[in-house]
Amino acid sequence: MMKIAEVFHPPEDALWRMVKQCGVDHVVGSFGGAWDKDRTPGEAPWSYGPLKRLKQAYENGGFELAVIESRPPMNKIKLGLPGRKEEIENVIELIRNMGKLKIPVWCYEWMAGFNWQRTDKAIPSRGGALVTGFDINDVPENSLTEFGVVSEEALWTNLGFFLRKIVPIAEEANVKLAMHPDDPPLSPVRGIGRIMRSIENYQRLLDLVPSPVNGIALCQGNFTLMTDDLPGAIRHFGGQKKIFFVHFRDVKGTPQQFVETFHDDGQTDMAECMRAYRDIGYHGVCRPDHVPTMEGDNNDRPGYSSIGRLFAIGYIKGLIDAVYSE
Length: 326
Known about the structure:
The protein is 37% helix and 18% strand. It is an alpha/beta fold and 326 residues long.
């Protein structure tokens, strides 16, 4: 059965307690931050000691660390720039340490230059809740001059080089590599190509370096913008045992123009998606992502409101109970 996880940093706070009160026992972790007072100067947050303390901090709060959704710097790897060897060595250190600590999944991405993009982070939604959105018409046309124009084929070449170095390490460490999609799944954006943006490209990823550890972080908000049949995509990749991690969320619109939504108010049949996960035998974690900011909360962290998470957890728990009892 699919398990629900949430994402937050140590130390324990009101959000930790609320999530535990909801019956959530798994966490998606991010390394780094000022909480780790024992990290020595110059010690990387992906080193063994800091990762061990991170895992212990979550376990002390009653959570199992199921996924690391944080990365060392990787831009030189993606762009094929001098210094990528050192960045790859840092990724290797992270994966080996995750293996030693039995942290099973690393969620990474291949967005060069900049990460997920929104053009508005306070769009009024149902009942006045605030959501984020994207409109390509509001994106500057100029390229990011420090990188110049980056082609999709260059990104594929660099991804192949990276996977051929990393996959054998991940196999040895028994750590699964879950590739997160481009957000939005659109190319190019400001002159930078994006390749993790279609069902076909995800299959190309899996075929690029075939391995039991080379797989997918299926972020539904992005995948539903790639296909009119998201449950079919779940079955396609799940049938290959390639879905390692799920972001359970929804949107309305197209890759060029969309808004985030409440889990029960988007364009996707969420119950059919849950049935697809059930049918493929997915037993990993999902986490709510990019939730609306609701009444009584602030919009300091758009997409990560505590009350919005509360709604999402309850919705997903109900969906799991209903679908798995059919």
